[in-house]
Amino acid sequence: AQSVAQPEDQVNVAEGNPLTVKCTYSVSGNPYLFWYVQYPNRGLQFLLKYITGDNLVKGSYGFEAEFNKSQTSFHLKKPSALVSDSALYFCAVSSGTYKYIFGTGTRLKVLA
Amino acid sequence: KAGVTQTPRYLIKTRGQQVTLSCSPISGHRSVSWYQQTPGQGLQFLFEYFSETQRNKGNFPGRFSGRQFSNSRSEMNVSTLELGDSALYLCASSFVVRGKGTDTQYFGPGTRLTVL
């Protein structure tokens, strides 16, 4: 069965430090991989995606993600965290079945 | 380009009533998906419509239904409301790449449903 795992419910990081939010997936074929961010009382906003090509994908607000096929991972990273990055982050995968599968979400807290 | 719009934004109903939520996708998007989001259960997939047909369905009871019109606008209906149906209902639209998958989903702001 296809699945997406975000192993951490919450990640705390100090402002200015690098951050990583983890995502692993299990899906057949060549998936599309996505990261979304959700601020309080808002819908999800698209951050970045991997479809094919370069394994390092750059997205909005200075975020990037690295696709690792052998580890079936797609971790979200940012070199220097901002307090305003505090939000709920979702990883998602889509494949030839057209189903969109979301992870359970990771709450990122950036401490001033 | 206008984003995904959802109406109404807020709704208060009582147990046993029914409710209809509306979603207008981004122009050109033919896939519309619905999600329920609650603090305890996270983001739960309800169903997806493509070209007026329900293509994928999540694990929700038959009280939850939806439809899509020829202009890709979609509605979802919840009958016989229960307290546990209180949630943020999100709609998302996207392009579909045939044989590959669903591309980026663009989300509306959601409808906050409160059942008393």
Structural write-up:
The complex is a heterodimer of chains A (112) and B (116). Chain A is mostly beta strands. Chain A has strands spanning 3-5, 10-14, 19-21, 24-26, 32-38, 44-50, 56-58, 64-68, 73-78, 87-94, 100-102, 106-111. In chain A, strands 2, 5, 6, 10, 11 and 12 form a 6-stranded mixed beta sheet that branches. In chain A, strands 3-9-8-7 form a 4-stranded antiparallel beta sheet, with no helix packed on it. A two-stranded antiparallel sheet of chain A has the order 1-4. Chain B is mainly β and 116 residues long. Helices cover 0% and strands 55% of the residues of chain B. Chain B has strands at residues 5-7, 10-13, 19-24, 31-38, 42-50, 53-57, 64-68, 74-78, 87-94, 96-97, 101-102, 106-107, 111-115. In chain B, strands 2, 4, 5, 6, 9, 12 and 13 form a 7-stranded mixed beta sheet that branches. Chain B is globular. Chain B starts with a strand and ends with a strand. In chain B, 35% of the residues are buried. Chains A and B meet through strand 5, strand 6, strand 10 and strand 11 of A and strand 4, strand 5, strand 9, strand 11 and strand 12 of B.
